[in-house]
Amino acid sequence: MASLFHISSLTKRFGSVIALSKVSLDIKQGEIIALIGSSGSGKTTLLKLLNAQHKAEEGIIKLSGQSFDSLSQSQLRKARSKIAFIPQDLGLVKNLKVFQNIFLGKVGHVGTLRMLWRFILPPKKEIQQVHQLLERTGIPEKLYFETSQLSGGQQQRVAVARSLYQGAHTILADEPISAVDPARARSLIKLLIAISKENNLTLIMSIHNIKLAQEFFPRLIGLKNGVILFDGSAVDESKLAELYQLSEDQLNE
Amino acid sequence: MSKKAAIRESVSEAKSNSSWFGKKRTFILAITLLLIYSLHTLGLKWSDFIPTENSFKLLKKFLSAGLTPALDYQSTGIPDNAPPYYMKVLTSLWLTLQYAVCAMSLAIPIGITLGFFCSKSWWPQSGSSRFQHILLVIFHRLARTVITFGRSIHEILWAILFITALGTSPFAAIMALAIPFGCTLAKVFSEIIDEQDRSNSNIIRAHGANSLSTWLFGILPSALPDLISYALYRFECAIRSAAILGFVGITTVGYHIETAFADGHYNEIWTLLYSLLALLIIVETLSSYIRAKINTPAEPRKIKTIAEIGSALTINRLKRQSGKKVSLYATSLLFVLLTLVAWNTGEPIFSDLSSAQRAINLDRFIHDEIIPYPVRQSGDWADTLPWAKELLMTKGLEATLQTFYIATSAIIIAFLLGLISIPRGSKKLNISSYENISLGLSGFQKVKRRTTYYITKSVLMVTRSMPEYLMAYLLLQILGPTAWPLILGLALHNYGIIGRLGGEIIDNADGNNAKVVIAQGGNTNQLYLFTLLPRVFNRFILYFFYRWETCIRDATVMGMLGISSLGFLIVDSSARDNGDEMFFYILLGACLVMIGDIVSDIIRAKLRAA
């Protein structure tokens, strides 16, 4: 089976800082992957590169065999509209209603005017679909609430529903559980994985907690200082220990 | 390095790190000196306040009339078929409101359109063609120029220009308000939009949205409450400005106040003042109600569980149960209806003159009146320069400086008054304390504090509601012809605004330090001066410069009351039918305002960065 994302010797710098260095990866449709590593290891950068939010200096990144570099602006937008990205702060517009935030999942497919129309006079069919998605994520009663009225955990579920509504083939989630308590973290991971399996979506999630990653994810990718330390299902204890070992410099910072 | 030397070094480092602006003592000392210098240059003395026998009599008569506002015509010989007095008052109030509403209904679309082009937040991030980019830059520059120019001419001056060019008509009044208000809205709208957090727009772009969608759904929604809030504030200002357009011949409240004063009908003045104040307070109360509604999400009705209703939660049921801001819809509808009524009642927009006559007037204005006199004689535009230089050197420059000193004195007095009265007008400092820590007040002290609080609040409300020009006019009648009335009129109005905002900032400041000070036995003044004020002082200075900018703008017209400064030269040349000189002084005022804007913008940007 051909890979969905093909990355070879990808390097990304921010000024003089090297965020990713010669990273190579192959990701197939439907894979459930955890990206682990400490802060600053390059997890967020990798996710943003997969969403074509950044451009890499060197190396190739291909989506379904097509290089991001070869895409025109509108093709790039089209490619993005098929990839759901959940940032750490969720990126919800707080003073919009829940259903409006979910509608925004399709902002890349629907034209500006039509989206505006949907905001003002939501079509019944779309509302029903949003309602079903909220039922799946467990908060159907919040459909017409203002998003700021929801708790942090509920807002995460809105963000998940938004990525489902988007009709994407991939969900990229950047440390979605870092701000919630352990019980909620587990239930959110379970939800994301279940949803991805049901819809045959690729899920790539960056995560701090190694225990949770080992428990739920069949494939673990360890990043340290922009380099892949390990990539697979079973990981050596020694490698795991190395992942969070700080160098002399970092300790002195 | 010895320990002492290390401490000394760290202290001096901390000192050099804090900017010049951040130093409270330096700032207050500097503005106090500037105030003394400005007053001195304007030739003002404190002894100007000692009333002469005549002015004391007038003051007594005027103030005692305040207790018995007129309920009927004061003058005798009113024809039998004249409408009752209250109808006259209501008509002038309605006209004031009507012009304000009509003007705002034009100013808001102008503000949105120009504000959109003044902001760069909707520009494509990358991938736009060179041609597209150049087009965007041109639109941006053009919109910036238009709003700077439109704003820097005061609405009264726009009114004079329109009246001279087209004759007195509702159209002149509406356009005179709509142009500067539209441009001010555009400036503030674009500032609000540019200050929004960009994280939301990044995620919407990540969904593949185009740049317009990104702006519309990622930035605009979170900016909307602030945009509405500011538009409501401008609406209050529009009513004030419409009222003072009466001083240049538009028959709003100001017109009747001026004629009543000329006739010595002081009781009638008070009737008009009270009713204008009532209108402004009603509008302000309504807009703070709307602000509160917009900023708090609707409380959902009690959600019934599936068990309770015995069937699935249908979408319709959810919609019904979700909170609705009915009152918000009602007030929006009220505004729409008000706008419709305002545009469709009263005399036609173009009254008095036939359209042919208007065309002739306009033609004469553009092709004759405002052309510099020597150019009209010789036909050579090169003659403009010596003419302008002459005007500038004989009177213009001096008047411009006077205008500047008047504005500066006014804002400094307002700021210092505000600093003094803030602890009295702050709810937390004066009444409710922090987290209800007991202050051990006796019953009498509590009553005293409550009284000072409500008195301060009322004074602030009255002073910020009254138009500065109107206050200056009334003070001028009592204090006599010096620059004091202009300064005090401006200062009082700005004191009302700064005092209210300052109280809000103090009440919203983080109270953790305050709690400690109370727990250590500190009193209210210590709490204010040493704990709360240092925290928020930077914001106060920011606001000081913002209001200073507005003061300069208002000061360009204050002289129209007959005190030597730019406004006086404008009204003087207009009275002598010298359209060219009038236009020159108006442009000179606009230059002063623009310079003030630029300086204030630079200082505020520095303060924000600090």
Produce a short descriptive summary.
The complex is a heterodimer of chains A (253) and B (610). With 253 residues, chain A is α/β, with parallel strands linked by helices.
Can you tag this structure with a few keywords?
heterodimer; A: 253 residues; Rossmann fold; six-stranded mixed sheet; four-stranded antiparallel sheet; 10 helices; 10 strands; globular; B: 610 residues; mainly alpha; MetI-like fold; 2 domains; 25 helices
Q: What is the strand and helix layout of this fold?
A:
The complex is a heterodimer of chains A (253) and B (610).
Chain A: E1 5-14, E2 17-27, E3 32-36, H1 43-50, E4 58-63, E5 66-67, H2 73-81, E6 83-86, H3 98-103, H4 112-120, H5 124-137, H6 152-165, E7 170-174, H7 182-198, E8 202-207, H8 210-216, E9 219-224, E10 227-232, H9 237-243, H10 248-252
Parallel strand pairs in A: 3-8, 3-9, 6-7, 7-8
Antiparallel strand pairs in A: 1-2, 1-4, 4-5, 9-10
Chain B: H1 3-17, H2 24-41, H3 53-65, H4 85-118, H5 130-152, H6 155-166, H7 170-194, H8 199-206, H9 211-244, H10 253-262, H11 266-295, H12 306-309, H13 315-321, H14 326-344, H15 355-369, H16 373-378, H17 384-425, H18 427-432, H19 443-465, H20 468-479, H21 484-508, H22 512-519, H23 524-558, H24 566-575, H25 579-609
Helix pairs in contact in B: 2-17, 4-5, 4-7, 4-9, 4-14, 5-7, 5-25, 6-7, 7-9, 8-9, 9-11, 10-11, 17-21, 17-23, 17-25, 19-21, 20-21, 21-23, 22-23, 23-24, 23-25, 24-25
